[in-house]
Specification:
Length: about 220
Protein backbone atom coordinates (compact mmCIF):
# COMPACT_ATOMS: atom_id res chain seq x y z
CA UNK A 1 0.00 0.00 0.00
CA UNK A 2 2.78 2.37 0.86
CA UNK A 3 4.41 1.76 -2.55
CA UNK A 4 1.16 2.41 -4.40
CA UNK A 5 0.57 5.60 -2.44
CA UNK A 6 4.05 6.88 -3.28
CA UNK A 7 3.52 5.99 -6.92
CA UNK A 8 0.27 7.95 -7.09
CA UNK A 9 1.85 10.93 -5.40
CA UNK A 10 4.80 10.85 -7.79
CA UNK A 11 2.43 11.06 -10.75
CA UNK A 12 0.29 13.72 -9.13
CA UNK A 13 3.17 15.92 -8.06
CA UNK A 14 4.62 16.37 -11.56
CA UNK A 15 3.65 19.88 -12.56
CA UNK A 16 3.76 21.24 -16.09
CA UNK A 17 6.25 23.90 -15.02
CA UNK A 18 8.65 21.30 -13.60
CA UNK A 19 8.21 19.21 -16.73
CA UNK A 20 8.86 22.14 -19.05
CA UNK A 21 11.82 23.34 -17.02
CA UNK A 22 13.52 20.00 -17.60
CA UNK A 23 12.60 19.32 -21.24
CA UNK A 24 12.65 22.80 -22.81
CA UNK A 25 16.40 22.61 -23.37
CA UNK A 26 15.96 19.48 -25.50
CA UNK A 27 13.77 21.27 -28.02
CA UNK A 28 11.76 18.15 -28.73
CA UNK A 29 11.53 14.87 -26.88
CA UNK A 30 10.04 11.40 -27.02
CA UNK A 31 7.84 9.54 -24.60
CA UNK A 32 10.80 7.20 -24.09
CA UNK A 33 12.89 10.12 -22.80
CA UNK A 34 10.06 11.16 -20.50
CA UNK A 35 9.89 7.70 -18.97
CA UNK A 36 13.64 7.67 -18.41
CA UNK A 37 13.26 11.00 -16.60
CA UNK A 38 10.43 9.64 -14.45
CA UNK A 39 9.36 6.02 -14.85
CA UNK A 40 6.12 6.74 -12.97
CA UNK A 41 5.09 9.54 -15.32
CA UNK A 42 1.42 9.41 -16.30
CA UNK A 43 1.14 9.60 -20.08
CA UNK A 44 -2.28 11.20 -19.70
CA UNK A 45 -0.44 14.38 -18.68
CA UNK A 46 0.85 14.69 -22.24
CA UNK A 47 -2.62 14.34 -23.72
CA UNK A 48 -4.01 16.89 -21.30
CA UNK A 49 -1.22 19.42 -21.90
CA UNK A 50 -1.58 18.92 -25.64
CA UNK A 51 -5.32 19.71 -25.45
CA UNK A 52 -4.49 22.79 -23.36
CA UNK A 53 -2.06 24.03 -26.03
CA UNK A 54 0.94 23.60 -23.74
CA UNK A 55 2.52 20.90 -25.89
CA UNK A 56 2.55 20.11 -29.61
CA UNK A 57 2.67 16.56 -30.85
CA UNK A 58 5.14 16.31 -33.71
CA UNK A 59 4.29 12.69 -34.45
CA UNK A 60 3.22 9.69 -32.42
CA UNK A 61 5.37 9.70 -29.29
CA UNK A 62 7.27 12.96 -30.06
CA UNK A 63 6.49 16.38 -28.60
CA UNK A 64 7.72 19.99 -28.54
CA UNK A 65 6.73 23.24 -26.87
CA UNK A 66 4.63 25.79 -28.80
CA UNK A 67 6.92 28.74 -28.05
CA UNK A 68 9.34 27.32 -30.65
CA UNK A 69 6.93 27.69 -33.59
CA UNK A 70 8.54 29.79 -36.35
CA UNK A 71 11.65 30.24 -34.22
CA UNK A 72 14.98 30.02 -36.06
CA UNK A 73 15.81 26.61 -37.45
CA UNK A 74 13.75 24.62 -34.95
CA UNK A 75 11.88 22.81 -37.75
CA UNK A 76 15.16 21.55 -39.24
CA UNK A 77 16.26 20.28 -35.85
CA UNK A 78 12.93 18.58 -35.25
CA UNK A 79 13.07 16.99 -38.71
CA UNK A 80 16.32 15.23 -37.76
CA UNK A 81 14.93 14.04 -34.45
CA UNK A 82 11.42 12.97 -35.46
CA UNK A 83 12.48 10.34 -37.98
CA UNK A 84 16.05 9.20 -37.43
CA UNK A 85 18.36 8.57 -39.09
CA UNK A 86 17.73 11.34 -41.59
CA UNK A 87 19.24 14.60 -42.79
CA UNK A 88 17.82 17.72 -44.43
CA UNK A 89 18.23 17.56 -48.22
CA UNK A 90 16.39 18.04 -51.52
CA UNK A 91 14.45 21.32 -51.84
CA UNK A 92 15.01 22.39 -48.23
CA UNK A 93 18.79 22.05 -48.45
CA UNK A 94 18.88 23.64 -51.92
CA UNK A 95 16.95 26.62 -50.59
CA UNK A 96 19.10 26.81 -47.45
CA UNK A 97 22.26 27.00 -49.58
CA UNK A 98 20.71 29.58 -51.92
CA UNK A 99 20.77 27.31 -54.97
CA UNK A 100 17.08 27.69 -55.76
CA UNK A 101 15.42 31.10 -55.62
CA UNK A 102 12.17 30.33 -53.85
CA UNK A 103 11.55 29.43 -50.27
CA UNK A 104 10.28 25.95 -49.49
CA UNK A 105 7.12 25.30 -47.52
CA UNK A 106 7.82 21.64 -46.76
CA UNK A 107 10.82 20.45 -44.77
CA UNK A 108 12.37 17.77 -46.96
CA UNK A 109 14.78 15.09 -45.78
CA UNK A 110 16.21 11.75 -46.89
CA UNK A 111 16.33 8.62 -44.78
CA UNK A 112 17.12 4.91 -45.21
CA UNK A 113 13.70 4.24 -43.70
CA UNK A 114 10.50 4.13 -45.74
CA UNK A 115 9.03 7.29 -47.27
CA UNK A 116 6.99 9.19 -44.70
CA UNK A 117 5.06 12.44 -44.23
CA UNK A 118 4.24 14.10 -40.93
CA UNK A 119 2.06 17.18 -40.49
CA UNK A 120 2.00 19.27 -37.33
CA UNK A 121 1.97 22.90 -36.18
CA UNK A 122 5.63 23.30 -37.17
CA UNK A 123 5.02 22.35 -40.80
CA UNK A 124 4.91 19.48 -43.25
CA UNK A 125 7.82 17.07 -42.92
CA UNK A 126 8.57 14.90 -45.95
CA UNK A 127 11.09 12.05 -45.85
CA UNK A 128 12.24 10.37 -49.06
CA UNK A 129 13.78 6.93 -48.89
CA UNK A 130 17.29 6.16 -50.13
CA UNK A 131 19.55 3.14 -49.77
CA UNK A 132 21.57 3.09 -46.52
CA UNK A 133 24.82 3.37 -48.46
CA UNK A 134 23.68 6.77 -49.79
CA UNK A 135 23.48 8.32 -46.33
CA UNK A 136 26.56 10.51 -46.72
CA UNK A 137 27.47 14.00 -47.86
CA UNK A 138 25.90 15.97 -45.03
CA UNK A 139 27.41 18.36 -42.54
CA UNK A 140 26.57 18.91 -38.89
CA UNK A 141 25.71 22.50 -38.08
CA UNK A 142 24.90 24.11 -34.78
CA UNK A 143 21.36 25.41 -34.45
CA UNK A 144 20.82 29.15 -34.19
CA UNK A 145 18.67 28.51 -31.11
CA UNK A 146 20.92 26.36 -28.93
CA UNK A 147 24.54 25.23 -28.92
CA UNK A 148 23.22 21.84 -27.77
CA UNK A 149 21.21 21.26 -30.93
CA UNK A 150 23.02 19.88 -33.97
CA UNK A 151 21.40 19.80 -37.39
CA UNK A 152 22.42 17.40 -40.15
CA UNK A 153 22.01 18.97 -43.58
CA UNK A 154 23.21 17.93 -47.02
CA UNK A 155 26.08 19.78 -48.64
CA UNK A 156 25.10 21.67 -51.80
CA UNK A 157 26.61 18.94 -53.94
CA UNK A 158 24.83 16.09 -52.17
CA UNK A 159 21.53 17.99 -52.09
CA UNK A 160 21.68 18.35 -55.89
CA UNK A 161 22.44 14.67 -56.37
CA UNK A 162 19.75 13.56 -53.96
CA UNK A 163 17.25 15.76 -55.77
CA UNK A 164 18.12 14.46 -59.24
CA UNK A 165 18.26 10.87 -58.00
CA UNK A 166 14.79 11.03 -56.45
CA UNK A 167 13.14 13.15 -59.15
CA UNK A 168 13.51 11.21 -62.43
CA UNK A 169 11.25 13.68 -64.28
CA UNK A 170 14.30 15.96 -64.63
CA UNK A 171 16.11 14.12 -67.41
CA UNK A 172 16.93 16.67 -70.14
CA UNK A 173 18.66 20.04 -70.55
CA UNK A 174 15.24 21.69 -70.81
CA UNK A 175 14.22 20.14 -67.50
CA UNK A 176 17.41 21.43 -65.89
CA UNK A 177 16.64 24.97 -67.06
CA UNK A 178 13.25 24.74 -65.40
CA UNK A 179 14.98 24.22 -62.04
CA UNK A 180 16.17 27.86 -62.22
CA UNK A 181 19.30 27.15 -60.20
CA UNK A 182 21.36 30.15 -59.14
CA UNK A 183 23.99 30.69 -61.85
CA UNK A 184 26.43 32.52 -59.59
CA UNK A 185 26.34 29.75 -57.01
CA UNK A 186 26.74 27.04 -59.61
CA UNK A 187 29.76 28.75 -61.17
CA UNK A 188 31.49 30.18 -58.13
CA UNK A 189 30.62 28.04 -55.12
CA UNK A 190 29.68 24.55 -56.25
CA UNK A 191 32.52 22.08 -55.64
CA UNK A 192 32.71 20.13 -58.90
CA UNK A 193 35.27 17.63 -57.59
CA UNK A 194 33.04 16.81 -54.63
CA UNK A 195 30.02 16.56 -56.89
CA UNK A 196 31.84 14.03 -59.08
CA UNK A 197 33.15 12.05 -56.11
CA UNK A 198 29.67 11.78 -54.64
CA UNK A 199 28.19 10.91 -58.03
CA UNK A 200 30.54 7.94 -58.33
CA UNK A 201 29.26 6.56 -55.03
CA UNK A 202 25.70 6.43 -56.37
CA UNK A 203 26.78 3.95 -59.06
CA UNK A 204 23.89 5.05 -61.25
CA UNK A 205 24.29 5.54 -65.00
CA UNK A 206 20.93 7.31 -65.18
CA UNK A 207 22.01 9.82 -62.54
CA UNK A 208 25.29 10.36 -64.40
CA UNK A 209 23.30 11.30 -67.50
CA UNK A 210 21.17 13.76 -65.53
CA UNK A 211 24.24 15.37 -64.02
CA UNK A 212 25.76 15.67 -67.50
CA UNK A 213 22.68 17.63 -68.59
CA UNK A 214 23.00 19.76 -65.45
CA UNK A 215 26.62 20.61 -66.22
CA UNK A 216 25.88 21.56 -69.82
CA UNK A 217 23.25 24.04 -68.67
CA UNK A 218 24.89 25.60 -65.59
CA UNK A 219 28.64 24.95 -65.68
Amino acid sequence: MHYNTCRMETKKNISYLDFKDFFISLGCFSIHQVRIWNEQFDRNNLRRWEKQGKLIRLRQGFYAFPNLIEQGDSSFYFANKMYAPSYISLESALSFHGIIPEGVIQITSVSPRKTKIFQNAFGNFVYRSVKPELMFGYTIQQSTLSHRWNIMIASPEKALLDFLYLNPQYNSKKDMLELRLDIDFMNDELNIDELDNYLEKFQSKILELRVAHLKKVYL
